[in-house]
Amino acid sequence: MRFAKAGLAALLLSASLLTAGCEDSEERAERHYQTGIELLEKGDVSRALVEFRNVFKLNPQHKDARLTYARTIKGNGHIAEAFGQYLRVVEQYPDTFEARIELAEMAISMLNWEEAERHGRRALELEPENLRARIVVNALDYAKAQRDSNPVAASQQADLARALVAEKPDSTIPRRILIDYLFNIGDLQAALPVLEDGLKLEPDSYDLHEAKLRILLRQDNQPALGDALRDMVERFPEDEKVQGFMISWFLTQDDHAGAEAFLRELANRPDADIARKITVLQFVRATRGDDAAREELERLINESDDPTRFIVIRASMDFDAGDTDKAITSLQTLTSTAAPSEALRDAKVVLARMLTGTDNVVGARAEVEEVLRDDPSHVEALKMRAAWMIEDDRTGDAIVDLRTALAQAPRDPMIMTLMAQAHERSGDRELAGERYALAVEVSNKAPAESLRYALHLVAQDRTDAARAVLDDALLQAPDNVLLLRTLAGLHVATKNWNETQRIIWKLKAIDTPDALQSATAIETGMMLEQERVDDTIAYLEGLVKEDEANLSTIVPLLQSQLRAGRQEEAVKLIDERLAKDPANPDLRFLRAGLHVLNNETDQAEAIYRGLLDQFPGEDKVLRTLNAFLVAQGRTDEAAALVDEQIAKNPKALNARLLKAERLERMHDFEGSIAIYEELYAENSNNMVVANNLASLISTHRDDDASLERAFAIARRLRGLELPPLQDTYGWIEYRRGNYQEAVENLEPAAEGLPRDPLVQYHLGMAYLAVNRTDEAKAQLERALEIGGEIPLPQMDHAREVLKDLADQ
What we know:
Elements: H1 2-41, H2 45-58, H3 63-75, H4 79-92, H5 97-109, H6 113-126, H7 131-147, H8 151-167, H9 172-184, H10 188-201, H11 206-219, H12 222-235, H13 240-252, H14 256-267, H15 274-303, H16 308-320, H17 324-337, H18 342-357, H19 361-374, H20 379-391, H21 395-408, H22 413-425, H23 429-442, H24 447-459, H25 463-476, H26 481-493, H27 497-510, H28 513-529, H29 533-546, H30 551-563, H31 567-580, H32 585-597, H33 601-614, H34 619-631, H35 635-648, H36 653-665, H37 669-682, H38 687-700, H39 704-714, H40 723-735, H41 739-752, H42 757-769, H43 773-787, H44 793-807
Helix pairs in contact: 1-2, 2-3, 3-4, 4-5, 5-6, 5-7, 6-7, 7-8, 8-9, 9-10, 10-11, 11-12, 12-13, 13-14, 14-15, 15-16, 16-17, 16-18, 17-18, 18-19, 19-20, 20-21, 20-22, 21-22, 22-23, 23-24, 24-25, 25-26, 26-27, 26-28, 27-28, 28-29, 28-30, 29-30, 30-31, 31-32, 32-33, 33-34, 34-35, 34-36, ...
C-alpha cells in the first residue's frame, strides 16, 4: 500500500508539472507574438516573421499569430505560403471570417473555383452584409453562369458587378468580371475604359495588359496597339513573349526598320547575351539579304571580344553558298588558334559536319573525338558519334552515347530518332517504335519526326496508326506536301477514294509546283487503281497540252497509253517531245523502251549505249541494258559492259551490284563479298546490301568472327516478313545455335522462295537441329531436287546428312 500511495503522489506531482509546463509554453509563445508585433510596428518584417515561427513551435494553435503571419507574407507577395497558413487557421478555427475571405479571394485570382466556392460561400454565411464577401460570391455566380453557358445569369451578375464597382471602386474582382463580360459580348468600346481604370489600380497586372492587347487587336487599332505593346515592353523588360509581340507588330506594319531597331535595342542591353545579336543578324539576312548580313557579321567580328560564334556563322554562310574550301579553311584556322571554350567546341562540331558533307569522314570523326575529350557530355558531338556508331553496327555503344546526350537535352527529338534507329538496327522494332513516338511528342508533331514514325508503323503493317500520326502532324503543318502525299498513298492503298480526293483538292489549293505535281500523280494513280484508263489518258493529255515540258506528266501518260494498248500513240507522244528536245536523256530512255516493245532491238541498244557513254554507270540505264543483253543470251557482253562502266565510274551502285551478283553465280563468293563490303562501308543503311552481305558471309564462311560479323549486320532483319531477309536471319540464328528461332524464320522463307535450293537446305538443317527428322529429310531431298547438279558444298552436305539418316 505504501508503494501505491507513493505512486499516486508521484503521478499527481507529474500532472502538476505538465500543467505548469503547458502554461509556460503558452506564455512564452505569447511573448514571442508580442515581440513580433512590436517588430512589425518598427518595420523589421524579417525578424518579426522569425518570432511568429517561434510562436508556432510553442503553440501551433495561436490564432492571432497565424493570421498576422499569413497577412504579412501575403503582403510580401508569398501567395502560396499565405494560402497554406490561412488554410491552417480554417482547419483550427473554421468560422474565422478573415481566413475564409482571404482564401476565397486568392483562390479566385488563381482560378481555383473549387476552393473559392468552399471558402467564399462560407464567408458570406458568416457575414452576410460584408462587401468583400458579396464581391466574392458575385464572382462565383458569374463564373458558374459562364460555365453553364447561361447568358441571362451572366448579364445579371455583370450588372451586379457594375454596382459593386461603384460601391467599392478600388476592388479589382468586380471590375474584372465587367471587363470579361463586355469582351465576351463584343462590346469592346465599353470594355476598354473599364480596363483602363483597372490598369490604374493594377498597373503591373500582366493579364490586364494582355486583355487590353486583345481588345485593341479586335478593334484593329494598330497605333494604340503599338503604344500598348511599348508600354508592356517597358513594364516587363525580360518577357520574351511581349518582345515577340512587339516585333510581330512592326512586321504587320511593314516597318522592318522599326523591328530591326527594336531588336538592336534588345541586343545592346548590358545584360543581353550573344543570342540577341545573332537574332539581329538573322533578321537582317531575312529582310535585307546575304550581303547586308555579311556586313553585319564583319562588324560583329571586329567588335566582339570573342568572335568565335560569328566566325562560325560566316563560315556556314560560305559553305551554304558553295564555297566549301573557304568555309572549312576558316574554321580550321579558328579551331587551331582560338582558346578552348564552349563556343570553340561548338565550332568544331560545325566543322565536323562540313567535313562530312565533303566526304572527309575521317577528319570529321577526329574533330568530334577532340570535342568529346574536352567535354564528354557535348550533346551535338554525342549525336554525331552515335550516328556513326549506328552505321558501324555498334548500336550498344551508340545508345550509351545517346543516353548521355539525353540527360543534357531530354526533349531533343533528334536524340529520340537516333535511339529509334539504333534499336531498329538491333532488330528491336518495338523499342524503336516507342522512341519514334517520343520524337513525335517532343517535337510537337513536327513533319519530319511524324513522317519517320508513320513509315515505321507502315512497315509494321499498322496502317491505321500511321494515318492517325499523319493526320495529327497535318494539324500542325496543314500545307506540308510530303505529309499530304504520304497520307494519300495510304488512302489509295486502302481504296479510300473520298479521302484521297480531299487530299488532291488540298494540294491543288496549295498551288505550288511541288503540290500540283503531287496532286497530278495521286489523281493519276487513283484513276488507274479504279481501272479508269481512258479517263486517265484524257486527263493527262489535257495536262500535257497545258505544259508540254512536264516530264512528270508525260511518263504516266505514256504508261497509261501502253496499258490501254495504244502503242502507236505512245510512240507519237515521245517522238513529238524528242523533236523539240532531242538531247533530253529521259525522253531518249523512254524512246529506247518503246523500241524494245516493237522488237527494234538495234535502235534500243544504240540509245542505251549512247546514254551510258554520256552518263557512265547510270543505274537505271545500265540495269535495263544488262537485262536486255542477258535476255538475248549475250552474257559475256553483259559482263564486259558492267566492268567497263565500273572502270568509267567506280562509284556506280548498280554496276557494282550487278558484278557482285555475277560473281556469286560464278561461285566466286569471296569476290562477291568484297564488293558488298565496299558498298556496305559506303552506305550501311542499304537493306539489300546488308542482307546480301550477311547472307554470303554466313553461308560461305565458317569462322566465328565472320559469323558474329554477319549477325551484327543482320540483326536489323529480325521480324521483317520478306523471304530473303527471313532466310538470312534464320540461317545466322541456326549457325549461332538458336535453332527454334531459326525454324520460325526459315519456314516462311522456304515457303516464299520455293525454287531456291539453299533456302530449302537451310530449313532442312534447322528441322534436323530441333529433332523434326522426317521433315528434315523431306526438306533436304527437296533442296537436292531443286539444286540438281549445282556444285555447292551445301548440296554435298545435304547428301551426306541424308545418307547418315538412312543408315540410322
